[in-house]
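Exercise 7.
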Amino acid sequence: MLARLVPALLSTASVLVLVAAQPAVAQAPAQATAAEGGSNLEEIVVTARRKEERVQTVPVAITAFSQADLERQHITEVRDLSRNVPSLSISTQSSDANALYSGQFRLRGLPGTVIYFNEVPLGDTDYNPTTGLTHGLGQGYYYDLDHVEVDKGPQGTLFGRNSIGGLISIMPKQPTNDFEGYGKITFGNYNLHEFEGAINVPVVQDKLLVRVAGQVQQRDGYTIDQSNGKDLDNVDYYSWRIGVTFRPTDDFENYLVYDGYYQHTNGGGEILKYINPGFTFAQIPLPILGNVPLTLGNGPGLAALENPATSVPTFLSLLGTKAAGGQPSLSFYPTLASIFAQQQALGPRAIVGHSVAELGKDYFYGFTDVARWDATDDLTIKNIAAARVVKQLATDEFTGTGLPILNIGDPTNNTSWGENSVQYTEELQILGKALDEKLSWVVGGFLLYDHPLGDTLLPSAAVGNVSYYHFHDSTRSEAVFAHGIYDLSDLVEGLKFNAGYRYTWDYVSVQEHGTNGADAITRNAAGIAQNCAPPQGFDNNCAVGSDTHFSSYGWNLGLEEQLTPDTMLYVRSGNAYRPGGTNPQVLPQFQNLKPEHVTDVEIGAKSDWEFMGIHGRTNGDLFHTDYKAIQVAQLVQVVDSQGNAHAASETQNAASATLEGGELEATFVPVEGLEIAPHASYIFSQYDKYPTAFGQVNSKAPPFYYVPKWQYAVRGTYHLPLDPALGDIAISATYSWYGHQYATSLVGEPLTILPSYENIDINIDWTNIMGSNFDAGFFMTNAQDNLHLVGVTPIYTQLGFTSVTYNAPRMFGFSLTYKFGPGTEHEEAAAGEPASSAPPAPAPVQQAAKSYQVFFDFNKSALTPEGRTIVDQAATNAGPAHVTRITVTGHTDTVGSDAYNMRLSRRRAESVAAELEAKGISSEEITLVAKGKRDPLVPTADGVREPQNRRVEIVYGGGPTS
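Solution. The predicted structure, written as tokens, is:
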């Protein structure tokens, strides 16, 4: 497959090279356009390689979003990213974004995706094979951010936790040296009301900076519980964030963040789609009748036979059925068929009822401290320490019938946390440069320790049989890593070699006990477990546990070739592993899980270009992945030694699989004010082997679940051609198409594929209304009000039913934002100036320019060919202008430490001064000035990340009248 796709990429790369090779005409006007908010493409700085770099210069497939992008595309949770990121898919069994069973994040079909917030990995956002749990990172994090980036492929040789699929990094906006902030209010349908804001206070100029931000949102649900009138799928949360930057000296900076999130909702609404009333659990021996099947819903109720008041009529009815030639049977729920008919009549936005008090409750909070010391120009020491608490409670009835066929949660005890843990992480990085700055490197160590914070209780019920599982699971992960980037430009201009290595040690301790509710004594959720040695699954008062450990290496190799300043080709390969675990509640032969291993190869191209007046950006890649010892989870029925049935999550290692495909992201600006941004991905994924213990499957090599083969989308944004005094009105729409996904391949399942679907989102944003500090916005998601499946619980062959989760209906709302601080004063002044129809006075005629702007590449201090031409012109013009003094002022970006930026500014100024001296200007006539990111910078246009501050100003002084 990859071999067939390689020519396509090479052809694309050839086109990019030809476009990039076009003459760089009108360079100065293009720079001026950037400052005026023209058609220059947005530049986002990411930290994929643990240093600030432009996303276009990183040899990894990355999709990045600025805060403005998130607002324009109305991305408010991780699941929204799947419509905007190629190859990102999210499986779900609940419509609750944060629920314990909310699903898995998959990049390129791989489930090992780690979410980072402020450089710290967040708990078990990935599926936990031991507990069967996973929690999302839903709403409440996507506000007041610097950027969000999605890095694809194995990760770990540079930082953090080992990851086989990739990572999602959420970076909050750090405190600045300005008094600034904003307040935002949003209202919408389904009684949506949201409040959001931030304030930045420089308590001590340059030394102590504080930023406080928060968000509160409430919204009614769109699925109604007919039994009590509650609205499911509602939203009710608040989130907060406090950041403090302490900079006692220019070379040391400490950034401390306290953040938290709390939500309490009515839970998600799963809809019963298929039911098999004749599903048989066991055979009951009865006099005369012999072995009578015990079914889900066929025949008289078992409770009626056990009740002395109704036992005789029930038995006689069974005899009558046999006498008439039928098959007598008993059932758990004799009213099941009529209840299912009620559900079918209600449709997808209502349920009959719940047998448990359904809710979703989350409480996340933590502290992160990032300390950075720039010991020298070439050596930086960075430490990231964090403590995070995760508390979650999710009660759910998977059928919505009011019958306890399968419940998570117990109506007699739904107040104990199902997930209650604290995570400590420590990461030390040492970053440096060597060999005349040709080698940049990072070495470090990582430690994660996760253990229970208090009692963890997960009650469940299968066909009315209540089980209590108490988890006491601890994990520890230790790693050392090193990564280097070597510049081979002496051999081939623009060529760099990347290499990294990691070794990880993981430890898992699992202690679990539970009761199956077989009698009144063991129904007590606080019962102490003992003497567990049943032939199958949990027995009464059963306790199991194990301590296991795993270790493995990981590596990353790559070559990148910067063909031009705007075009790069790269090839990379990586290896990573995902630790194993245990299945303590199932058969002994299935208890141990081995680690998973991934090796991939990726080739890609990134290019910014201009052709016949059209500005564009094209990023594409192809990948091939070998996936070994895959951990596959399946819900199975476990019967204990007393014949009681339980639902348990069993995970086993499949042998291997192959995944390969390609991704494309592009942006085009055909005319000023119009931007078109398509993206697409293709993934071919296939198991080579599959565990047969889960039952017969439709093929020997079933497809990957919840991995669409095709995804694509296109976003268009148009800025109305208005007078700037009126502000800017941008209209954008995104069309996305999501391919069909397999939910299961088991024989007998009525729903094996989730059909493909399309979606349209619309946004209208009016910034700086009438020259004021106010912005207004309108959003509409799912504009067509389409209905489609986003999740399924395929256990028809295990428990006789299948439930599904539907997407949210059309949502819309209006927002109003007020901003204050630097960047708004000039707008206020312009709005206050009296209007005049008189033409402006002509500017005085000058014989030669008195100042020059020399621009630099991101994070570079070497003169570009265009920059050297400008410096040479400034030196040539200095003589005729009788200049006796030249001031050379270096500027820099707003990323990185203050000390680093000051040094970069000075190096840029020194490069210009050296070129002036080479052209005959005396060093005594040159004055050097360096301005770091704390000094006033050139105002930037919306969506442009400080490119005009990567410059040196040359200003003439002196002369015949000086």
